[in-house]
Here is the input.
Amino acid sequence: MIDTDELVRRNAGFAASGAQVGLPLLSTGNLRLIGCVDPRVDPSHVLGLAAGDAVVMRNVGGRVTPAALRSWAMLAKVVEARSHGRPPPGGQMVVLHHTDCGITDLAPYPDLLAEFFEIPAASLEQKAVLDPYASVAIDVELMRRAMPPAVRVSGLVYDVDTGLVQVVVP
Here is the structure.
């Protein structure tokens, strides 16, 4: 069992490594990523990212929701503030969905999903909750409309069985 004492012990090892020293608040490569909270699909781990390589946001299903878009807008303001008023640079936004996602288990709860997506329950079919390949394409389109034109947006699906990602939307 991992308890608080174990977390503190593990953190001491991390802190002693010095890996966090000198990391800037802003990511080093202008990479932004939204992915799922599923513990099998830690985006940094499965994509080989190091601390500081990307801004990673995680939510249920890795979905682009109104709440996620509001958070990205807030993060853009942080970048602007830290960049002395300059707007955030371009870069890459990746939407990462995965196979065997627990969000599919929420299909019997349309009211809960509708609240999550901030849409009427009758519109849930448009979110393709049961199909990660269709849902990533839907979310890439939403993100493309929300991001500045200088930000390239792509969509990947991670296969939890093979460990490989597939580019669904380049």
In short: The helical segments are 4-17, 43-46, 66-82, 110-117, 132-146.
